[in-house]
Write the C-alpha cells for this entry.
Amino acid sequence: MSRQLDQFAIIKYLGVKDYAETQSLMQKFNLQRDENTADEIWFVEHPPVFTLGTNSKPEHLLNPGNIPVVQSDRGGQVTHHAPGQLIAYVLIDVKRKKMGVRKLVSALETAVIKLLAKHGIEATADPKAPGVYVNGAKIAALGLRVKQGGCYHGLSLNVDMDLAGFDRINPCGYPGLHVTSMNKLGVHTGLQQVTWKLMNELCMQLNIVNISEQKADI
C-alpha cells in the first residue's frame, strides 16, 4: 500500500481560511496519519496576518498595527500573509518518500522557479536563505515542520497581494529585504490559473503522478 501511495496525493482547495485554524488542522492531520495515509497538498489564502516561526526574534516584528500576530510551529522567522498570496501546504510523508528536509525545500523552490520561468520571470533560490528571489527581492517564502516522519506547512507565493504589510516587519528576519509579486513584475493572471500551474509543478518535483482534486471546507 505505501508503495502505491508514494506517487499519489489528494489536492484540496480551501479558499480563504483563518491561519490559526488551518495550522491546527495540519497539526491534527499529521498527528493522526499513519503509513496508509495519503499525502495531501492544500491550496489556500489567509486573511491578513503576521506569523512567527520557531526561530523568530521579536525585534523583527516592527509595527504590526491592527494585523493579528500568530505563533506558528513552522521553521523560520516572521512573514506576512494576505489575500492574493497563494499558499501551498505540503502534508507529505517524507519518510515514505525518502526525502530529507533539504531535498524537499529544493523541490518546492524549483516548482516556483519553473512556474515563474513560464511567465518570463527569471528567479533563483538561495541556499543560505530558503525561498525564491527575483533580482534580490523575495517572491516566495518557505517554512516547514517535520514531525514523526511527516511534513506540514509549505510555501507562499506572492501573486497579486498588497505588499504594504511587509513594511511592518523585517521579512524572514532580514532588515531591508525587498519583497515583490507576480503582479508587480508585470504578470497579470488570476490566482486560479497560478494555483493550477503551481499544482502541476509541485507534482512534477515531488514525483506525484496520480491526484484526487477536492474543493474542501475542512
Observations:
- The CA atoms of residues 25 and 218 lie 8 Å apart.
- The two ends are 25 Å apart (CA to CA).
